Amino acid sequence: GAGVSQSPSNKVTEKGKDVELRCDPISGHTALYWYRQSLGQGLEFLIYFQGNSAPDKSGLPSDRFSAERTGGSVSTLTIQRTQQEDSAVYLCASSLVQTGGRNTIYFGEGSWLTVV
Amino acid sequence: QKEVEQNSGPLSVPEGAIASLNCTYSDRGSQSFFWYRQYSGKSPELIMSIYSNGDKEDGRFTAQLNKASQYVSLLIRDSQPSDSATYLCAVNPGNQFYFGTGTSLTVIP
Dihedral of the CA atoms B34, B81, B42, A102 (nearest 10)? Predict the structure, then answer.
């Protein structure tokens, strides 16, 4: 696709329910990132996928959060037993990893999650 | 120490003035540096990238990099009300991208 595509764009869920957020990166981009941004706050790194390497999960805030990337393309971020503090916009980004380190990261429009 | 530090602002400038945004970073191995603009309720949008020491100009925007001082800045000339947004500095020392918390800019008509 032309850009990073995320779905759903908005999700309202009840506390305790599970949610899945989907990200389709820019075609050909091998690196994929998930970030979280709470209202008025900065970007919080969650997880990073690069090709077939083991993902960097160091930013996941708890074991209720998990993510997978199938076939090196589409990624799904799953939040189990959602809590109100999970309410935020979840941003997916992708980049083309180039030799020489000149990588650029592009963001999707985000998935706005509200836990009630 | 945070990887990337920015003054959170808010920074207010009159229309037509120069807005100056600053950023420092901690990882000396960083190779790539970026400025993103984020309008309220929107996702970050890339406006400038810079890889070498010195200045890089693109229209009304100039990015400045000083690796010795671990300092990146963004100048916006002839500021317009449409430039009002939060500006995020990002650094790419390897595979990871580190973002500052952003500087809020308001351009007053």
Answer: -10
Question: Each residue of A25-49: b (16+ CB within 10 Å) or e?
Answer: bbeebbbbbbbbbeeeebbbbbbbb
> How confident is the prediction along chain B (109 residues), in pLDDT tens digits per residue?
668 999 878 999 999 999 999 999 998 888 899 999 999 999 999 999 999 999 999 999 999 999 999 999 999 999 999 999 999 999 988 778 899 999 999 999 9
Residues of chain A found within 8 Å of residue B32, distances taken between Cβ atoms: 101-104
Inter-residue contact B63 to B76 (CB < 8 Å): no
CA dihedral B24, B25, B26, B27 (to 10 degrees): -150
Q: Measuring CA to CA, which residue among A81, A83, A75 is closest to residue A111? A: A75
Strands B19-25 and B61-66: unpaired
**CA A41 to chain centroid:** 17
**Residue B57 corresponds to which tokens in the numbers above?**
């100009």
User: Is the CA virtual torsion B26, B32, B38, B42 positive or negative?
Assistant: negative
Residue in chain B lying closest to A91 (CA): B43
Contact residues for A35 (Cβ-Cβ < 8 A; gap 6+): A43, A44, A45, A46, A90, A91, A92, A93, B99
Determine the residue among A34, A58, A89, A107 to mutate to test chain B binding: the one whose Cβ has the most chain B Cβ atoms within 10 Å: A107
